[in-house]
Every structure is written in C-alpha cells, then in structure tokens.
Amino acid sequence: MDMKKDIYYIGVNDLKIDLFEGQYRVPNGMMYNSYLLWDTYKVIFDTVDLNFAEEWLNNIKQILMDENPDYLIIQHMEPDHSGSIKKFMEVYPNTTLVGNVKTFTMIQQFFSDLRINKKIEVKDGEVLEVGKHSLRFIFAPMVHWPEVMVTYDSTDHCLFSADAFGRFGTELETDWVEEARRYYFGIVGKYGSSVKALFAKIADKKIDCIYPLHGPILEKDRLTEALMYYKKWSNYEAEEDGVCIAYCSIYGNTKKAVDFLIKNLKGKYVVFDLARCDLPQVIGYAFKYSKLVLATPTYNGEVFPPMEAFLHGLIERNYQNRTVGMMENGSWAPMAIKYMTKYLEKAKNIHLLEQSVTIRSGLNLQNEEEIKALADALK
What we know:
Blueprint: E1 7-9, E2 12-14, E3 19-20, E4 24-25, E5 30-32, E6 35-38, E7 42-45, H1 53-64, E8 71-73, H2 79-82, H3 85-91, E9 96-99, H4 101-110, E10 119-121, E11 127-129, E12 134-139, E13 149-153, E14 158-160, H5 176-188, H6 192-202, E15 209-211, E16 218-219, H7 220-234, E17 240-247, H8 253-264, E18 269-273, H9 279-288, E19 289-297, H10 305-316, E20 320-329, H11 336-344, E21 348-352, E22 357-359, H12 365-377
Parallel strand pairs: 7-8, 8-9, 9-10, 14-15, 17-18, 17-19, 19-20, 20-21, 20-22
Antiparallel strand pairs: 1-6, 2-5, 3-4, 6-7, 11-12, 12-13, 13-14, 15-16
C-alpha cells in the first residue's frame, strides 16, 4: 500500500467477518482503514471496529512510540469506524477530538459515559493547520450518514473520504470496480444526490489520491477509474449497454422462458436466479447495464418472494433511467406483471417495454414468438 512519506496506514483487516452491516456477504473480508499524519501536530483519522481496538492501538504505538497524538479527526460515526473511540481515549486522554455538532451528538449516544477533555467542533469549510499540512473539513451529509465529513489535505492534494470511494474486500483483490459497485449500490446508492453534492464541493480541488475508510487507497489509474465510476453511479447512468436478467422459477417453466430469451438475445447480458444469488450483486448489475428483464411466477396473487425483495432493493436505491421488460407465469390468474409495474411506478424515468410475455404454466409456441419480440425490443 503506497503512502505519502508523512502519512502512515494504521488500519486493520477483518478476515473473519461473514456479513458486513449484517447483510452483505464479504468472502474476502473488510478493511477498516485509519491513517496517521505526522506533522508538527500528529493527527489520527478515524478509529476502527471495537473488535480490533488492541491491534489498531498497537499500530499507533509502533509509529508514535512514546509520542502522543494531538488530534483524532472523526469523519464518520458508524461503529466500524468509531467503535474504538473510548478505548483510544483511555490510552490518550489528552488528545483533542475533532468533529462537527452531529458527530459529538452521536458520540454521546454511543458512549454516554465518555469524558471528553478537549474537542474542536468544526463547521463546513473550516481549516485546521497542523504544521505544513492544512486540513479542510468538507461536510458530506448522507454519504451515507448525516454527520459525515471528509478532509482535504491541500499540501499533498489528498482526500480522506470517509465511506465514499470504499469497497468490500481487502487489498488482496486486484479488480476494484466489482466489489466497489456492490458496495456503492448496497450502502451509498440511495444517496446519489448527496454524492453529487460532494463532487460539487471538491470540483475545484486538485486530488492526487483518496484515502477511503474501506478498501485500497486510490491513486493514479485507480483514482481516475474510481472518479469516473462514482460520477456515473451518482447520476444513475448505465456503465454500458447490456441486459441484466433477474428471474425466479418454482418448477422450471419460467427458467425455460428465460433460457429461450437468452438464445434470442444479441449483445451483452448477465443472468441471475434470485433465489440462489447474492442480492446486492444483482442490484449492482441492474445499475451496471442499461436494460433489465424481470421474470417471475405469480405467487399468492403477487410475485415470488425473492423477486419482491429484489424490486424493493431497486426502488430503495432510486433505480432509474433504464429500459425494463417483463415476463410472468401463472396457471390460473397471472398477476406478476401488474404487481411489478405497480412497483416500478415508484422509479424515475423507467421505460417499460410493450413486448411483455405471459406464460400459463408451460411455454408454448405463441410465448416463443412473444419472447422473440421481447428480444428484438431489447437490442
């Protein structure tokens, strides 16, 4: 991990975690990043999950030796980053905590018995001089909590970005975008307008590197890539033309319809069985591609439960600006398309294709012609 000569990485890797935030699969673990800036004043950026407090404090000790940190900047109060504040203050009680008014409100909520000896309550745009480094605090509310702020180091042209520009996994993986997309649309995706507001605030800043609270440091080509994707994602733009097919099938008949659609498609596509896949990954691919096909049996007058969970996930994350085709199955009262259409009415700028397909139990010749028409409409 490349670092500036006076910025040290003091974070930890969690390789035992199975679910991040209690719902996202992380087979490659998580990085809880923290940084130490050594200047006239010594500055710590964020803490780590409480389970790694001792390892993190040891990382600090190995660098500072008998010195004490002067400031602890708290950019985000989610427990995976703030969980060790109390442990830190037990070791370094004279360190000045730096945050905003919402930060300190949350600190009292999480640590009601914490005694803070020194604190600086900053406002948006204020600067902290720590020697040759000037640290400007830029508020980024709802990226993705209301107290979030990022810190711009005008000396090294680096942005300490809190949860923005993060990613699942550890430094071991080389492909940034796949796990970054799943992370973004799982955690930050609902707040695209807030991400755009942050971009507007940093538009005049020269940025040579980004220090996120999860995932690898971003610089050079990786930085360019990250900025490009975040701009697309925050604007809800498709990364490329293609079709994401999300389906459910109880006895295999709806799957046969999906298989027939695939045979007639041209161009890029990806297929997910919603009952057997990682839902955040499917949501990510629904945003990656310009088109989406939903295929499901009717179930209790609505849709099969995994499809309902998927639709809820899309709407919750402001799914928009896409073309959508639908296929349904029902032996006596097909209702899935009606239900899915009602769900998608909550989304912005969705073009529903007229070429929908209704299957009654099993695929027939008329259905095959309808599916061919759907495939043509998806070109």
